[in-house]
Every structure is written in structure tokens, then in C-alpha cells.
Predict the 3D structure of the following.
Amino acid sequence: MSFRFNFSSEELESAENDSTVRSSLDNYDGLNITGKQPIPKPFIPPRELVLNNLNDVLPLTLIAERIFISTCEQSILYKRHLSDVKFQVAQEDNFLETNYNENTRILELAADNDIVQGVYEGGLKTWECALDLVEFLSKNTDNLNFEGKRILELGCGTSLPGIYILTTKNPFRVDFQDYNEQVLKLVTIPNILLNTLLCPKTEDFSNGTAEIDVPECVNLLDQLKRSRFFMGDWNGLIDTINLDSEQEKYDLILTSETIYNTDSLPNLYNVIKHSLKRPNGIALIAAKSIYFGVGGGVLLFRQLIEQDKVFGIKIIYNEKAHVKREILILSFLDCLA
Ligand SMILES: C[S@@+](CC[C@H](N)C(=O)[O-])C[C@H]1O[C@@H](n2cnc3c(N)ncnc32)[C@H](O)[C@@H]1O
């Protein structure tokens, strides 16, 4: 089943062109269900993406745009422009000539749908709650104290919250998970490099974008090897992450706009529950109060957590937009007692 959050391709393009992104996404008006025929839900099994070289991942140049964060001292994040992703994929198509490229399929799906359930889960664009989460993190760096912490961003897509932490303090490690391998390769990894090693300068920008050369050097791979990357479904992900001891578990789990699908809520919750470190680990969940058309949202997620009685929940951010946006913090109940 495919969904569209009431945007045309042009609107999505212009959202990507807008360096603040947020304004055009504020018109969110719910889901359009475009596919009426039930189709069997495919399942991409979870696995770790191990990077041994970047030749088949990175192009020679990247086009970056800026995301201005209103609240923090390091007030700009960089993200790969969607047009650049399209350009890379078109070039690969020319090169392959005969083979239909899996990247092309994901881009075609993303042009017409926000999400195609079980096939493409929306990771190529930045969703507005991701920016709420970045702003929240930037206002609370002292309270959250990322130094030496193990952090995981689930359903990362363009990964701005995880990358924000990677660039500001000195975390032990920030790991990233997305449903689609293509999303990790086309946006997550380039965005990490743009914000850590490639770092465009102000003078590189003209008309809102900067073209940055990607050098062939081992530093890039070294930087990426500081993180682990996981792809595929949340169902079974805990076995793939394979955290043997409490010490290896995550101090902080971040996730944004991932609780829209009622079917996958229990699996997402399970990953959080089993990979968060006791007793002090916390999870930050940024989401809309309801996702019209698919039924998920904050209310349902809260019910799931309250029934399980493992975590306490607090709403720590509440933006009264047309559809309310919230950030929840989960912490272990036995720690709160
Ligand atoms: C709407 S996108 C949000 C992307 C990003 N967090 C943001 O806010 O910009 C939802 C993300 O959740 C992840 N996701 C959705 N369903 C999933 C599932 N069943 N298993 C694993 N990941 C899933 C995908 O990785 C996808 O990128």
C-alpha cells in the first residue's frame, strides 16, 4: 500500500530546495492512500551494512544544502540535496545501460509517494519532527550530556538528529538504522561526511547549494567505521545488533516520524526495550500526534508502552501545529522509582 502526505512532487522538490525545509512541511494535512489494492507486505530482513570501501557508495562530488538550527551555537547542519541523489542515480543508470538499478526504483517510488509500505519507508527526505528533535537536542546538550555515550538513531533517513550529536559533543559512538539500504548509501552516509570531514564553507554556497569534492582518502572510511549501520526491518534487528552485555547497549535512542504504522509499532518498541541500557538509558521519540490514513501516532504508541509497564513516558516538547508534533522521552520505570 502506498501513501502520500498531500504533497505534489513539485512541492517536495521545493521543500528540498528550501534551506529551512520546515515551512513548506508545515502544511501537513494527513495521508492520502493512493493504492487501494491490498498487496502482500514485503519484508526486508535486517542486516548490518559493513563498509570496506566507498567506491560504490560515494560520487566524486556532493551537492550540499544548509539546514539552519535556530537554537544552538553550531547553528548549521549540511545535508545532501535530493537533486544530487537523482543525478548520481541517473549516471549509474547510464553506466549500467541494461540493468534496472534498485536506486532508480526507490527514487521513482519516492517521487510519487511519501511511503510505500514495506518497500520504501520515506527515508530520502527530511521530515519535520527530525528538525524538532535537532532543536530539542541543541537546547539540551548540557542535560543530556552526550560525551562518551552510545547512541542509536532508528529509522534515520537523512539522520540530522544523530548527525547533530556526532558533530557537537564527543559521543562514544552514534549508530544508524534505516529500512532501505539505498537510503543509508545515498543520504545517511553522505550527510555524515558532509557534517564531519567535508564541511562546506560559507563561501562555497551559491543559490543555497555548494558543490563539494569528495577526496579519495582513508579518513572518510575511518570516520564511517566509527558508526555501525543497519538496514532492513525492525523485526529481528536486536539479533543483528547483537548486544551481548548491558554495557554495550545504548545510552540514548533517537527516532523521528517512525510511529505512523500500527503494524510495526510493536517491533520498533521491542528494539528500544531490548537495546536501551538499564537503568539510565533514555529514548527520544519525535512524532505527530496522529498519522491520518494509517492510524499510528503518539496516542497508540503511548498505549503500547503504558500496557507494558517497563517505561515511564513524559512529553517534553509540544508544537501546536495543524497536526500536533510532540517529543516523548522514555525512561525505565525501575529507574524512576
Ligand atoms: C517517515 S521516515 C522518517 C525518516 C527520518 N527519521 C526523518 O524524520 O526525517 C520513516 C523511517 O522509519 C523507518 N522505518 C519505517 N518502518 C520501518 C520498519 N518496519 N522497519 C525498519 N525501519 C522502518 C525507515 O527507515 C524510514 O526512513
Notes: The domain at 2-336 is CATH 3.40.50.150 (Rossmann fold). The longest strand covers residues 311-319. Residues 121-123, 126-127, 129-130, 155-158, 178-179, 183, 233-234, 256-258, 261, 264 surround S-adenosylmethionine (CB under 6 Å).
